[in-house]
Amino acid sequence: MDEYQEIIMEIITNSGVAKSKAMEAILLAQKGQTERAQACLQEGKDELVKAHRAQTRLIQSEAGGTAHEVTLLMVHAQDHLMSAITTRDLAEHIVELYNRLNHL
Q: Which residues of this UniProt protein bind Mg(2+) (predicted)?
């Protein structure tokens, strides 16, 4: 596996973990465990930072003149990243709503 593919796999892996953490946070908030839910959201954010850093390496490489073939795997990685970001954003709102409901 070359460096390009390794970076793509890093994006997929980190994004997948981030999305899973967001979903876990929602389930924890549903059960009234909002502190644990917040911790999961933070873990997910940390994974998204890693994914963004990997993506940035690819962008900088291309900006520096190294062209990369757009493969199905790369499209898949970008899809994972965008899906994880959306899921995280929604999870933050859902956890907050459960937190408010639990205090009523």
A: 79
